[in-house]
Amino acid sequence: MNILFCGDRNVQNGLLIAVLSLLENTQEHFDIYVLTLNMTMNEKIYSPIEASFIDYLNNEVSAQYDDRLYIKLIDTTSLFKGEKPDANLSTRFTPCCMLRLFADKIDEIPDRILYLDTDIICRKDFGDFYYQNMEGVELAGVLDYYGSWFFRKNILKRDYLNSGVLLMNMAELRKTGLLSKCRHMCTTKKMFMPDQSALNRLSVSKRICERKYNDQRRLHIDTVFQHFTTHFKFFPYVRTETVKPWQTEEVTTVLHIPKTEYKALFDRYYDVKKSIRLSDADKQGKGELYV
After folding, report:
1. Does domain 2-229 have CATH number 3.30.70.560?
2. pLDDT tens per residue, range 210-221
3. Where are the domains of the chain?
4. Does the chain have fewer CB atoms within 10 Å around its N or its C terminus?
5. What mean pLDDT do residues 48-76 have?
6. Contact, 206 vs 139, CB < 8 A?
7. 289 vs 291: CA distance, rounded Å
8. 57, 56, 40: which is closest to 48 by C-alpha?
9. Closest listed residue to residue 213, CA positions, set 261, 271, 255, 166
């Protein structure tokens, strides 16, 4: 299975949890592509995902899962600078969100790939979703829980996808030029959630799939991917609530997800994090720079 993640160093905790959850819930081999960048924009520093972190996953973690994991780290800084989303630089937009829009310019990216946000946990095997027939389809995903009520191309039905889980038919995307069109729109038109909005506005062949493949609101018994998005709370006053998977205590205390639901995964996460720290300390203690 081919998986795509994007982000800077700040996503490493989420990436680790997501990767472990994938390995725990299917027996397939994973070729994972991670797009990162190294730049400063609007006085904010975006540092690349650490190569030492990826090396540890490829060597130590993969060995614990029958060598079913290979991660390739790809620096997309030059691609991003070449098509900077100037119209959206002053919005809540972060450049890491846009990196997936460059997938068609990266030769290593295969014809079928599943994009996942790094605030997602896999709970079940997703072979049915991943291997669905994508002939003539650019993207397959799930309706956005909130956005699909307000943003739509077809006024008669909800068709606005959440872009946190997207099965991408790269052969079709390269043929239609959708990602190139989205990059251009992000450079010229100010939008709310620009990359997601551009994908929804410009796609001509997207497939809407079942909620369980991108459960954004709450956990259900059939949830395959739980997506830890920001959601609204209305009592005792209107507010937003955001809890991410790496905030492991809040997953239980705030979201009220039973502790037993992710205990094994979170224990594994902390074990690997500890091992990575020990490995880095050992490398530095021997005078080696583990990067």
Report:
1. no
2. 999 999 988 999
3. 2-229
4. C
5. 97
6. yes
7. 6
8. 40
9. 166
